Amino acid sequence: MSEYIIETPKGKWEVVCGLEIHCQIISKSKIFSGASTNYGDEPNQNVAFLDAGMPGMLPTLNEQCVHQAVKTGLGLNAQINEYSEFARKNYFYADLPLGYQISQFTYPIVGEGSLEVELEDGSKKKIGIERLHIEQDSGKSIHDLEPTKSLIDLNRAGVGLMEIVTKPDFRAPEEAGAFLRKLRSLLRYLETCDGNMDEGSMRCDVNVSVRPLGSDELRTRCEMKNVNSVRFVMQAIEAEAKRHVEVYEKGGVIAQETRQYDPVANVTHTLRKKEFAHDYRYFPEPDLLPLVLETGFVEKIKSEMPEMPDVKKARFIKELGLTEYDARVICESKEVAEYFEEASHGADAKRVANWLIGDVFAVLNKNGLTIAQSPVSAKNLGKLVNLISKDVISGKIAKDVFEMMLENDADPEKIVAEKGLKQETDVAFIEQTIDALMAKHTAEVETYKSGRNNLLGFFVGQTLKATQGKANPAVVNKIVSEKLNK
Ligand code: MN
After folding, report:
1. 338 CA distance to ligand 1 centroid (A)?
2. Residue 129: closest CA among 14, 15, 16, 19
3. Phi/psi of residue 284, each to 5°?
4. How far apart are the CA of 109 and the centre of ligand 1, in A?
């Protein structure tokens, strides 16, 4: 349990928060037209007559979008509704040429589900999912390119969205942050949404209210629209909750309204008051039949589901002996997990995990690279780990080899062979080296024998130096100790 309590001289308060997340569906074409969904194309290049609101155009449901919604529903352990309906949500906006959005209302395609999140302190919390429905995205209004005009780009108009609505289960900003990261990871595993919040393909509305600690009332909530990063969502919850507490403690009332979070000032401000709120006048979409899933449709998707991150994580812990922490870090990203599986194929998995989380991540972070752009391939990392496991090189030499591998993903076996870095495990040779050193440092040998045990390290160090770090440190340690204590 994460304890998040707002405490003032007047009392203690608890936060109640729920999220609504709009996720762009990965699909080549839009949900009701054949236009492309490609991101970053020239403005208004991907607009079918339907997307532009031309009269007489009829929507045709894209089966791929239905497939993706069902797959996501299964990933959220949710009820899949074989019967759902489309509904018209009526409102006027310049980037919505139809004058309405085709959405789902009373009968969504996915019902209740849940997602378990892990918190900083290692505890787990199950967050309830209220529903998932599919709908069209709107176009984009651009207000900052022309001083006196607003521009409209309809490329996004009609792109399929999954709107995921949670139950008001969040009691702390940290829980919402953990949920969004987990959801994003899940969507990427499922390949149903790319989860890029900065490109707007995952957008979060945050509902916040507060109540005296220990009460179970639900007070008036305010909604912050389109918060575009996980960090901002967490900050917005905190800022908004504190505002509610201040208002209540001064004897004021919170008005139900839509607000906007300003990350620069770390405050929220009113966007529109409830008294001007929309009445969307939902009604069943007359241009589309109810959506009835064919027998076997859901079963087929079930059979094609990839291994989910939690299952993968449990497997890495149980079968490969990873720690809970390492498994969590590796499984958070599908690509990292795939890299790890390839690298640890035939190599010591725990060692691979250490190198991946330590050395490889450090290089990626330093250079702003993703795992797919890693200068060291999974195959070569596995080879490096095997060289250590088989005592061909020491862990210390391996660090140098790794540095050399960064050039063109060089093969560690070749580096070791070419640079003559193979570890010296020839005991006779190591003994000779130590004998020579002891003959040279008779004073130190005497000092050791008079009780200065720390000189053991001196001889080990000298031996490693004399063999350019190639002598096996464990073997050296053992022989030096034996010889000194003779
Ligand atoms: Mn929506």
Report:
1. 33
2. 19
3. -55, 135
4. 14
Q: Are 220 and 254 in contact (CB under 8 A)?
A: yes
Cα 40 to Cα 79: distance, rounded to the nearest angstrom: 35
Distance CA 212, CA 190 (A): 40
What pLDDT sits at residue 433? 86
- What is the CA(65)–ligand 1 centre distance, in A? 15
Please give the pLDDT value at position 314: 95
Q: Ligand 1 mean position to 239 CA, how many Å?
A: 24
- Measure the CA–CA gap between 86 and 283, rounded to whole angstroms: 9
Q: How confident is the model at residue 417 (pLDDT cuts 50, 70, 90)?
A: confident
44-48: long-range contacts (C-beta < 8 A, 24 or more apart)?
44/152, 44/153, 44/154, 44/155, 45/155, 46/155, 47/154, 47/155, 47/157, 48/158
pLDDT in tens, 196-248: 998 899 999 999 999 999 999 999 999 999 999 999 999 999 999 999 999 99
Distance CA 138, CA 354 (A): 45
Q: Ligand 1 centre and the CA of 102: distance in Å? A: 10
Beta strands in 137-201 (DSSP E): 140-142, 151-153, 160-166
436 vs 454: CA distance, rounded Å: 20
Distance separating alpha carbons of residues 114 and 143, to the nearest angstrom = 39
Mean pLDDT, to the nearest integer, of 104-118? 97
List, for residues 344-360, the tens digit of each pLDDT value: 999 999 999 999 999 99
Residue 203 alpha carbon to ligand 1 centre in Å: 10
pLDDT digits (tens, 9 = 90+) for 426-451: 778 888 888 888 888 888 888 888 87
The Å distance, Cα 475 to ligand 1 centre, comes to 66
Structure tokens at 43: 């403005």
The length of the chain is 486
